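Escalated from tier 1: thymidine-5'-phosphate holo job.
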Amino acid sequence: MSKRRDLLYEGKAKKVYAAEDPALCVVEYKDDATALDGAKKGSIPGKGAINNRLTNHFMTLLEKSGVATHYAQELNDRETLVKKVEIVPLEVIARNIAAGSLAKRLGLTEGFQMSRPVLEFCYKSDALGDPMVNEYHIAAMGWASPEEVSFIARSALRINEILTGYLKGFGVELVDFKLEFGRLPGGSLLLADEISPDTCRFWDSKTGEKLDKDRFRRDMGGVEGAYQEIYRRIFERVEG
Ligand code: TMP
Ligand code: ASP
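Tier 2 regenerated the structure:
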């Protein structure tokens, strides 16, 4: 880091620092990787820089399509300025193809193509294992208002459409992904957190090869290579 900054928060994959402008903060992406709510720990060399650049690329793409995000400015390889928000304590999962916990819960074969996207909400709590909740729990606990939940659901479906179409152009299926939203001081909602191989399932369209963090979660090997492959596909084309 070029400058001393006050650490506001350290998560499993990122650190958040105060910025000079109190309306912003600096996110630093780490190479640390965890799974099973932090119980499994490791490191994926180069991951921080890849996730930083991929997240910023996707957020810029979404902004161009009218989705408001927290993205402000990429500072360097691993650090990005973002708008300071109060994170809504929900993980919003959008799914196109059955995989992971959905496949397990409903006894589906991974790869089952669903007839329409599925949205799920989880309460953000490692201690509780991010339990799945519905609109009633969310309103009753005061985590978000019904209007906010409906805005978040509409945004997540729109983001799914945009990213699914974009990634197909690179031979990548967007199987599922996790989003987080935050509130600005005035209350308006923005897409926050990250969109990366840590938080999405990316499968090669032809071979079905996994190009995401499942390789780490499932001890499959080839973890760094998978992150590099997603990065290469997108940036080689974008940067010519
Ligand atoms: P799941 O099938 O394990 O519920 O995961 C669904 C999607 O959410 C998958 O793309 C990975 C992502 N995810 C996170 O980003 N953070 C998490 O803590 C978990 C469990 C999943
Ligand atoms: N966020 C989860 C954890 O740290 C990891 C995952 O993506 O599965 O345990």
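The chain has a mean pLDDT of 96.
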